[in-house]
Design goal:
The protein folds into 2 domains: 71-330, TIM Barrel, CATH 3.20.20.70; 338-425, Sandwich (Immunoglobulin-like), CATH 2.60.40.1180. 30% of the residues lie in helices and 19% in strands. It has helices spanning 2-12, 15-36, 76-79, 85-97, 135-145, 171-181, 198-201, 203-211, 249-260, 286-298, 314-320, 323-329, 379-382; strands at 71-74, 107-109, 149-155, 185-189, 217-220, 238-240, 271-273, 303-305, 338-343, 349-356, 360-367, 373-378, 389-394, 399-400, 405-406, 408-413, 418-425. The strands form 3 sheets. The protein has an 8-stranded parallel β-sheet with strand order 7-6-5-4-3-2-1-8. Strands 9, 10, 11, 13, 14, 15 and 17 form a 7-stranded antiparallel β-sheet that branches. Strands 12-16 form a two-stranded antiparallel ribbon. α6 (171-181) links the parallel β3 and β4. The longest helix has 22 residues, at 15-36.
């Protein structure tokens, strides 16, 4: 990849700046590559109880946004650089026409490759004249006319990951430009960062966005390198806790585990981000996608659709439009659910759970084994007294389970599938904020 990008520069940069640019690029590639493989450290506190909210709200940026996790669509997972203004308009149309917009999927986010290969003579970012000939302002107007919001992409480095101009040292000008276009959301990436610490690179864009007077959702995409959950709540509205997801079971499960360790740091105003949804892109089974969507909803992760919504299957729509699962993600209590028990060979019989408003619990029984298993949620792991009685609602079957459960709840779960429930105790035996 580095060789390709160097060849690119021979064609698009003048001889005067070429030597310096290549040196900067090489150092940036090396530093970025080394940063990407650093292990993510664990939080300094002990393992959290499901109801531990000691860090809840402590770090949140108070700009009035992200009271619940953001929902919408992003272009990268399916289209990568193959984007243009027609695609973005058609996606907005589809979100409205098929009913996803009314369920909360309101952000239409353009990822990398929207801009020209260099800034204008005035130093401004310029939309790619071939793919976005009408400009971003006209596109924002169209999106807003649909009752939706427009998101855009830049980078806290000298270049974006696909070697378009980055916003490092251009924060004020770029933020002002985004605001003048009517942008509602900024995804801010981490490539070609010159080895500068993210705690130094990301706050200037926060200040620049705030200075515009326009409320713009600020999504930090720092890949979890410097444990952003520990500091990013004062900077942005969400922060990536992991490397990029890909459309595979191995990637999705690994990322879920990495994001889980930071559960106590999320809350209204700022959310842990384990990356966008892969549901509908074809690399996983229906059961695996159901698990993916269930766990992301439970973890209060952003629900950003990453498939082609213009051509989604009925199964994909069924998963993404489950109002009961979406309600878990958007619950106003805003406490991230987490992994609370692991049993069986390979530790693949898993229970994930978290508190909801109305003194309820969301409980997901996730089978990560290669065969069907029985998974049991025990009251001790859920923070309930053993004699507590709860009613159980199945969120995927949309039905109440007959009778009440006491002390434990067991169910058979197919390989790589996930069943999701709401438990409503008749006697409250745990403490909620």
């Amino acid at each position: 990849m580095a060789e390709v990008k160097l060849i690119f520069f021979f064609f698009f940069f003048s001889p005067i700046t070429l030597h310096l640019t290549i040196l900067t690029l090489l150092s940036s590639i090396i530093l970025s590559a080394s940063l990407r493989v650093l292990p993510i450290s664990t939080p300094s506190t002990k393992n959290y109880n499901i109801f531990d909210t000691s860090l809840y709200g402590k770090l949140q940026l108070n700009n009035g946004l992200a009271q619940t996790p953001q929902m919408g669509w992003n272009s990268w997972n399916f289209f990568a650089c193959n984007i243009n203004e027609t695609l973005i308009k058609e996606t907005a149309d589809a979100l409205v026409d098929i009913g996803l917009a009314k369920l909360g999927y309101t952000y239409v986010n353009i990822d990398d490759c929207w801009s020209a290969l260099s800034r204008s003579s005035k130093g401004e970012l310029v939309p790619d004249p071939k793919n976005f000939p009408s400009g971003i302002k006209a596109l924002a107007d169209y999106i807003h006319g649909k009752g939706l919001k427009l998101g855009i992409y830049s980078d806290a480095g000298v270049f974006t990951c696909e070697v378009r101009p980055g916003s490092l040292y251009h924060e004020n000008a770029d933020a002002s430009l985004f605001a003048s276009w009517g942008v509602d959301y900024l995804k801010y990436d981490n490539c070609f960062n010159l080895g500068i610490e993210p705690q130094e690179r990301y706050p200037p864009m926060r200040e620049a966005l705030n200075d515009t007077g326009r409320r713009i959702f600020y999504s930090l995409c720092e890949w979890g390198v410097n444990d952003p959950a520990l500091w990013a709540g004062k900077v942005g509205n969400s922060w990536r806790t992991t490397e990029d997801i890909n459309d595979s079971w191995a990637s999705m499960t690994t990322i879920a585990d990495l994001n889980d360790k930071w559960a106590a740091y999320a809350g209204p105003g700022g959310w842990n981000d384990p990356d966008m949804l892969e549901v509908g892109n074809g690399g996983m089974t229906y059961q695996e996608y159901r698990a993916h969507f269930s766990i992301w909803a439970l973890m209060k992760a952003p629900l950003l659709v990453g498939c082609d919504v213009r051509n989604m299957t009925a199964e994909t729509f069924e998963l993404l439009s489950n109002e009961e699962v979406i309600a878990v993600n958007q619950d106003h209590l805003g406490v991230q659910g987490r992994k609370v028990s692991v049993e069986g060979p390979g530790k693949c019989n898993q229970v994930w759970a978290g508190p909801l408003s109305g003194k309820r619990l969301v409980v997901a029984l996730w089978n990560r084994c290669p065969e069907t298993v029985i998974i049991t949620a025990k009251w001790e792991a859920l923070g309930l007294e053993s004699r507590s009685s709860v009613s159980v609602r199945d969120l995927w079957k949309h039905e109440d389970i007959p009778g009440n459960a006491v002390s434990k709840f067991s169910v058979e779960v197919e390989s790589h599938d996930c069943k999701m429930y709401i438990f409503t105790p008749f006697t409250v035996t745990h403490s909620l904020i």
